[in-house]
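note to self — DONT lose this again. spent like an hour looking for the file last time. sequence + predicted structure for the chain T wanted, 89 res
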Amino acid sequence: MQYKKFRQEIAPLCLRLIVGTGFMVHGWAKISRGTIGFEKLLIQTGIPFPHLSAILTPYVELTGGIAILLGAFVAIVSVPLVVIMLTAM
């Protein structure tokens, strides 16, 4: 019985670690390489406002990933992260 409770408590932590780390890594990769290359990709795919999106997206991914990793403001930061992922699809 305690094992089931332990799994229910540890599952959200594991998900936060995986999702938060994923967003942080992808955001940092875009920032460290410079946003110019990412902007060119956005122009080629026809994303509206490619310059603004190229600047905002990596920082939203990085800060959102940190917030999810820490478990802070998860409901708030998940909205822009969902929008970014829907746009990416």
